[in-house]
Specification:
heterotrimer, A alpha+beta (387), B alpha+beta (318), C alpha+beta (349), A: Ribosomal Protein S5, domain 2, four-stranded antiparallel sheet, C: 349 residues, OB fold (Dihydrolipoamide Acetyltransferase, E2P)
Chain lengths: 387, 318, 349
């Protein structure tokens, strides 16, 4: 276990032999046509099964399973909480007198909600909840959640998720998002957790508010009239989105994608072996821009590539057990144009250094571009029946 | 009313100092938001010195130049509350040292990073147990440094890097409502400082690195100059969050100039509305990353100088 | 192409409440042996070798015949080829994970040291033990003996054993191991507890006549070796022609010298040059095995070969279907999931 700890944000030290690492790296870095161990194309995701509203005790929930047996369950619970007022709000209230509804423009900032109202916890078997990996993952996902501010002026989602949680000036919803990974992660669990959280939030409903204005809130206890946390465009098609071609006009929760670069290739949804040889690993959070219809970048974070912690291979010319069997001229170190390191072909070297700016730029572009991977994933998620 | 009328209840959480109208009528400094006096691409001065902690194998101390308004407030205090804060942090490096016997074999040096705010570092007191933000910073720092350290030179050894933040950067102006822009922008400046300081401390401990790694921050802020249309943004380097009403997005990098490589990148916020200069067709995030890299290049010059000083001191000793 | 999201499939498990009231009614409280219910008639026939058809659950009386002896554990590491991962290096031996409940050991004395079979083991060999096998290395070895506690002792004293290279590793549910998952979770520190019981005991590598064979692959892939370890670890690699090359040079090399030349390469961690076509076929073979494992079909030479042939045929079929769309045909063409895997299974079974 101590090995996992040292690997901080990378889930664990990969247990692959140097020969395997070298084989994988060469296969994945073949120019233009990387050969992934499972035959996928670079932008292809592993198929997954998804369902929502599986936990009756929550406001919203989802489960996603990969074919390899790893599963994640997310439950969302909401509680009403009293808002602690700031000086500015108090001052403006005093000035504005008993009418709290005027000056819409100046009060939007005050009722904009607060990021700390969204609480996220991630439970991964084999990790303590204060270990680096769960902390890093939850901060990463929370940051894009509360950062996703809706741009649609007319919708309820002005101010994004934070704004939606405001009930009135004195009360707000507090959202608890609890993520549970059911088995020890076989790969870096970020895509699985992010997709599951996305679906759980989509299915989350809040009871309908019956009180008005600045009264203490009370709610309709009929669950059937509860409203979605992320409102649907029209109530008639609200429950089911059958065709993915019609562009939804409502705000969607963000999705965080894991992207790696190996050599010149950019690869999505890496499995455990692939991430072990990655030159650079990025977690890119995106959401759909409701007005422009294209994708918006919310955050980028580098993830420590586990390839830095791997065991190096020994070139035959330096292998003491092969003295005399190989002429030293057999292995000539060649310059890897991507990493700028001298490498003997077929011998694994742990990765060093960082990523070039051009590589990072290209990775982000592949996600964001029209018809790119980001759109495909969001469209795939829209096809999931949210009941 | 829910409140208990029978007793005088304290406020449910901490309060803010009252703002008296007398202060407001002064119209000047004390309760005004600090204003950025620097050019958009002008960085704050950095004080960086190595080898301050004799018991550690390497150490460094880093301080940002106080902003103009903070310097003015210190010279001529009008209010109890300083208008902004300036980053101060200390970094110690212990190691390379052998791993405990029980630890598994590692072909590379095992890096552990701790980032801790001193309880008095921020305006709100921090507890002694690291919170999730501090742990998150630790992970970011580790990612940044691991790319620079040549880890296979020390198999079976460990390296502990501890950063103590003595004074943290504010996330926003103290007078702004906590919800006006609550993303922790100050944390990004802290991370940039941590990276630069840790790199100096590692060099001070004579750990082999590919390059000195420097941290830099750039941000897209809402333009407040007034002479342009509302909603336009401006790219600024080394932003002090207390000096801006609204930061739309920010980016911090750990950057190695010699290899032109980024080992750590943390970008958040909406960078799509960047209004760059004419003819600049970079997307917002690319411009942000480039800006942060420029800031890191600036920090690197200070870093290189500090490391040179550190070496000269050792040469002088022997 | 991108992403496929499916609704969950529930295996139509209809809870069966067998109407066994007749049985329980008929059981006399005095006949406490009969309390075990339906299995009673079968148990009576143990002597007639029908034990294999009867399923007993823990706590049931299997027999009260005193001539039967209690067994000592149900799993024994078989004395045969297995693929293993080195876990920890100790002073004179390696502790290796063989997907068994206990780590196996490979003593330094049980490997062929470079420099000829007759070379004596010296203390310098102990010091440079990591130059032979190090943490994380994959090694193919043979089980030499099994200790009382079930821990195995291994050896690599043959030219066919040694470090594995030029290929990929897979772990499937073994016949007896602790049930490695179907997703190449390989043993190692911290990953022993990592395997979910996904395999549910079905399928897995079956001990058969041949555990190591060479496939002449299609699509210009050349020859590919497959090693099926009895513990469920599988290695697929480019065919090693080292032996052939060495024997062709035997003319002027003495027998011992030849041995030496071959044996040195067993400690190499440098891959040979492998062309993309071979890599593709290796990936295809690995997936064929995954398909077999995920549907609970035993893995042996026959099933692997027919799955491989089937996958080629499926490729042709799919290729015919969307000939117009040349580009998308090649994107992810080799990914064998969903419909393709079902088609392969139809062809295999």
């Amino acid at each position: 276990m101590s090995n996992q700890r040292q690997a901080s944000s990378a889930s664990q030290v990969p247990h692959l032999s140097p020969a395997e690492l070298s084989y994988l790296y060469t296969s994945l870095s073949l120019p233009k046509t990387p050969i992934r161990p499972d035959g996928r194309s670079p932008t292809q995701f592993r198929p997954l099964t998804a369902e929502t509203n599986i936990l009756p005790g929550t406001n919203g929930s989802a489960r996603i399973g990969f074919a390899d047996g790893t599963q994640a369950i997310v439950g969302v619970k909401a509680e009403v909480e009293k808002t602690i007022l700031s000086n500015e709000t108090l001052a403006s209230e005093r000035g504005a007198g008993p009418e709290p509804t005027d000056q819409e423009g100046s009060t939007t900032a005050a009722v904009g909600g607060h990021g700390s109202w969204v609480q996220m916890s991630i439970e991964i078997p084999g990790f303590r909840d204060d270990d680096a990996l769960p902390v890093f993952l939850s901060e990463m996902m929370r940051e894009s959640l509360v950062g996703a501010v809706g741009t649609d002026e007319n919708s309820d989602m002005t101010g994004g998720l934070k704004g939606r949680l405001v009930i009135n000036k004195r009360w707000h919803w507090r959202l608890y998002i609890d993520v549970l990974l059911l088995s020890q992660p076989l790969a870096y669990p970020l895509p699985l957790l992010s997709l599951t959280t996305h679906l759980a939030l989509l299915s989350t409903k809040l009871p309908k508010l019956k009180s008005q204005g600045e009264e203490d809130p009370f709610f309709d206890d009929d669950w059937a009239v509860a409203e979605y946390l992320y409102p649907r465009s029209s109530p008639s098609t609200g429950a089911k989105i059958s065709s993915s071609s019609s562009r939804p006009s409502f705000v969607r929760p963000p999705v965080t994608l894991l992207v790696i670069s190996v050599g010149e290739n950019i690869i999505f949804d890496p499995n455990r072996e692939e991430i072990a040889v990655a030159d650079a690993v990025l977690a890119i959070s995106i959401t759909r821009d409701t007005q422009a219809g294209h994708l918006r970048l919310l955050s980028i974070r580098t993830v420590d590539p586990p390839s830095r912690l791997t065991q190096p291979g020994v070139p035959n010319s330096e292998n003491v057990n092969m003295l005399g069997a190989v002429a030293p001229t057999d292995d000539i170190a060649v310059l890897n144009p991507v990493t700028g390191e001298e490498e003997v072909p077929g011998v694994w070297r742990p990765r060093r250094g960082g990523a070039k700016r051009s590589v990072i730029s290209e990775m982000v572009k592949t996600v964001l571009k029209k018809g790119g991977v980001g759109e495909e994933v969001l469209e795939g998620l829209e096809g999931v029946e949210v009941s | 009313m829910m409140a208990d009328r029978r007793r005088v209840n304290g406020p449910p959480s901490g309060t803010r100092p009252a703002v008296f109208t007398a202060d407001l009528q002064l119209g000047a400094s004390a309760t005004d938001r600090a204003q950025r006096q620097r050019q958009p691409s002008e960085l704050r001065k950095i004080f960086l010195k190595t080898g301050l902690i004799p018991t550690a194998s390497g150490s460094s101390y880093l301080e940002f130049e106080p902003s103009a308004s903070l310097a003015a407030a210190r010279a001529n205090p009008k209010s109890l509350i300083p208008p902004s804060s300036a980053l101060k942090l200390a970094c110690t490096v212990h190691g390379p040292k052998p791993l405990p016997r029980s630890a598994a074999f590692s072909p590379n040096i095992v890096l552990t990073t701790h980032v801790k705010y001193a309880p008095f570092a921020a305006r709100q007191r921090k507890g002694h147990i690291r919170d999730s933000g501090e742990r998150d910073l630790g992970v970011h720092l580790e990612t940044a440094l691991r790319g620079a350290i040549i880890a296979e030179r020390w198999p079976k050894s460990g390296l502990d890097i501890t950063v103590t933040i003595l004074e943290a950067e504010d996330d926003r102006w103290w007078g702004s409502a906590p919800d006006s822009h609550d993303a922790s922008w100050g944390m990004m400046n802290v991370l940039a400082g941590c990276i630069t300081a840790a790199s100096a401390a590692i060099a001070d401990a004579h750990i082999d690195c590919l390059d000195l790694i420097a941290g830099g921050v750039a941000a897209l802020v809402a333009d407040e100059s007034g002479n342009s249309a509302a909603g336009t943004t401006k790219l600024m380097l080394d932003t002090d969050p207390a000096e801006h009403r609204s930061i739309l997005s920010a980016c911090v990098v750990g950057y190695m100039p010699a290899r032109d490589e980024i080992t750590e990148l943390w970008l958040k916020g909406d960078s799509s509305k960047a209004s760059l200069e004419e003819g600049d067709d970079r997307s917002g995030h690319d411009a942000l990353i480039d800006g942060a890299v420029d800031a890191a290049r600036g920090a690197h010059t200070v870093l290189a100088e500090a490391v040179r000083e550190s070496l000269l001191r050792i040469v002088g000793q022997s | 192409m991108g992403i496929t999201i499916l609704p969950p499939v529930s295996d139509d498990i209809i809870p069966r409440h067998e109407d066994d009231s007749d049985d329980s009614m008929s059981v006399d409280s005095d006949e406490d042996v009969e309390m075990s219910g339906l299995r009673a008639p079968k148990r009576a026939r143990i002597g007639n070798q029908t034990l294999s058809t009867g399923v007993v659950t823990p706590g049931e009386v299997v027999t009260d015949d005193p001539q039967w002896m209690r067994g000592h554990g149900t799993y024994m590491t078989p004395l045969s080829t297995s693929i293993i991962a080195t876990v920890a290096v100790q002073s004179k031996r390696w502790k290796v994970d063989v997907a068994a409940p206990l780590l196996a050991q490979l003593p330094l004395s049980a490997i062929n040291l470079p420099g000829g079979i007759l070379r004596r083991r010296t203390s310098s060999d102990e010091l440079q033990i990591r130059t032979f096998f190090s943490e994380g290395d994959l090694v193919v070895a043979e089980v030499q003996s099994v200790h009382q506690d079930g821990a195995a002792s291994l050896h690599t004293r043959s030219l066919k054993y040694g470090k594995l290279r030029n290929g990929v590793f897979l772990a499937v549910t073994g016949t007896g191991g602790s049930g490695a998952s179907s997703n190449s979770t390989k043993g190692g520190v911290g990953s022993n507890s990592l395997r979910p019981g996904a395999g549910s005991g079905m399928g897995g590598v079956v001990r058969s006549r041949r555990q190591v064979w060479t496939i002449n692959t299609h699509n210009g892939g050349g020859e590919v070796d497959v090693i099926l370890g009895v513990n469920g670890y599988i290695w697929i690699s480019k065919h090693a022609d080292g032996t052939a090359a060495a024997s062709s040079a035997t003319e002027n090399v003495s027998i011992t010298r030849m041995e030496e030349m071959v044996s040195t390469s067993i400690y190499s961690s440098q891959n040979d040059e492998i062309i993309p076509q071979t890599r593709r076929e290796i990936a295809r073979l690995a997936q064929c095995i995954q398909v077999l494992v995920q549907s609970g079909i035993r893995v042996d030479e026959e099933t692997v070969m027919s799955a491989y042939e089937a996958s080629l045929q499926v490729d042709l079929e799919v290729g015919d279907e969307d000939d117009e769309d040349e580009d998308s045909r090649h994107e992810g063409r080799e990914y064998l999931e969903g419909a393709k895997s079902r088609r392969i299974l139809e062809l295999v079974v």
